Amino acid sequence: MKINNNVWSYVKNTFRPYSSSFKGLTTSNGIIKNNQEIVNLLGNHYEKHFEQPIHDINNPYHIECINTYKEIENGPNLPLQNIEYDEVLKQWKNLA
Hints:
Elements: E1 25-27, E2 30-32, H1 35-47, H2 60-74, H3 85-95
Antiparallel strand pairs: 1-2
C-alpha cells in the first residue's frame, strides 16, 4: 500500500456525476411507463413480505413456536440494561 494506506489509489474510477434516467419497468408483458402502474405492481409484489405468516396447525413445532411467541408478546415489558464493552469482550474470550 502507498502512504497512509490509501486504498482509493487501487480502485478503478467508475463513479459518474449522473445516473441514467428511469425509462420504465420491464415485465414479461413489456415495459411499463405509467408511474401508478409501476407503484401498484411493485406494491403487490413486495406486499407478501409483510403479510401474517401461515402456520401449519398440524405441525407440533409450529404450534410450540406460536405459543411461545404469544407468551412473550403478552409478558411484561422489561427494559434492557446497557451492556459494557468489557463484559462482551470477557464473554467472547470465554467462548473462544
